[in-house]
Known about the structure:
Elements: H1 3-12, H2 17-55
Amino acid sequence: MDIKCLLKEFIEDESGLTAVEYAIAGGLVVGGMIAAFNTLGTNATDKIDCLASAVNGNSADCTAP
């Protein structure tokens, strides 16, 4: 086999592309999960703080979004 033939086969080979596509898709999913958990965590912390204030005697409406 000569170099020209090997180079042509290498350029035409697309088997590695699926791994790259899966890696990109996985990265996007993980990024979305991190964003969702950060938002959920912030909202949960706010609700817990509000409930703790209400328990301590401060009048707070913890049902507001």
